[in-house]
Write a structure and sequence with these properties.
By secondary structure, the chain is an alpha/beta fold. Helix content is about 45%, strand content about 10%. The longest helix is centred in the N-terminal third of the chain and has 24 residues. Bound molecules: zinc ion. Zinc ion binds next to loops.
């Protein structure tokens, strides 16, 4: 399994959300379970890469610490990590496209970041920045965003609407699925979401841990249902021959080891899908 990681993706944890500190914790857990991971460092995004998806004044104000980041703090260390966390997603997507495979980026904090707003632990929208960078290189490229975090990806929708971006299929489960009674329908519905992604050159899969039923900010899937979610996504995309770059997103259980365990299960599902459906 291919993973994009470098220590610059890491920043001190900010307040309630463990996101900033998660890359190193997840990486350590993954490497303990799978010592043969292939690792590439994240290529950092430039300011102009970031301004492709965000208002330039907003971006400058964030980097100058004039306005708070998505965690509600002003942190030079978080700011220093942002080009790398967002760049990790683009690096993963490029690698997945190159090798027609599945690549992990252990990063979070994207989908609530809108055109000119940082909120709910998200500062810049690495999903949209990745999609826009790929479309800048290959005009018209069709890209899927499969956002299975618990929460609605309002920032992604905002950027698509402000920029009138075309050729992005944006699926955000948080728009529809909230309740444990919807769990089995959600799992069945995954196949329909994958059908909607047919024709995409790549899918960016946000495998949020906060849909877990015990999550204080989420809650409708059990541990084994989350594993089924990930298995269906990875195997379905492999069957369709669509490369995928995936990331972590939310997860707020305490201690953080519970969240890390969910991200380990996502890796397990990805590795199993690659084994069952080797490259064509
Ligand atoms: Zn969330």
């Amino acid at each position: 399994m291919k993973v994009v990681y470098c220590p610059q993706m890491q920043a001190p944890t900010q307040g309630y959300s463990p996101s900033a500190g998660k890359p190193a914790l997840v990486m350590q857990a993954w490497q303990e379970s799978w010592p043969d991971l292939q690792i590439r460092p994240a290529m950092p995004l430039s300011e102009s890469d970031i301004c492709r998806g965000h208002d330039a004044a907003f971006v400058r104000n964030i980097f100058a610490l004039r306005i708070p980041n998505g965690f509600g703090t002003r942190s030079a260390e978080v700011n220093a990590s942002l080009p790398y966390t967002n760049g990790a997603m683009l690096t993963a997507a490029r690698w997945a496209l190159e090798d027609n495979t599945c690549v992990a980026a252990p990063v979070s904090g994207f989908h609530h970041a809108g055109w000119d707003s940082a909120e709910d632990f998200c500062t810049f929208n690495g999903l949209m920045l990745t999609a826009l960078a790929l479309q800048a290189e290959t005009p018209g490229m069709k890209i899927g965003i499969l956002d299975y975090d618990y929460h609605y990806g309002n920032g992604t929708a905002d950027i698509i609407s402000v920029l009138k971006v075309e050729n992005i299929v944006n699926i955000t489960a948080g728009e529809t699925f909230k309740d444990p009674e919807q769990a089995s329908f959600f799992l069945t519905h995954i196949e329909d979401d994958l059908d909607a992604l047919e024709g995409c050159a790549i899918v960016l899969y946000q495998a949020g841990a906060d849909p877990h039923i015990d999550d204080p900010l989420g809650g409708f899937l059990s541990t084994s249902q989350l594993f089924q979610r990930d298995s269906r996504v990875f195997q379905g995309l492999r069957r369709r021959g669509i490369p995928v770059a995936w990331n972590l997103a939310g997860g707020y259980q305490k201690p953080v080891s519970k969240v890390i365990g969910i991200h380990e299960n996502t890796m397990r599902a990805a590795i199993e899908a690659l084994r069952l459906f080797p490259s064509r």
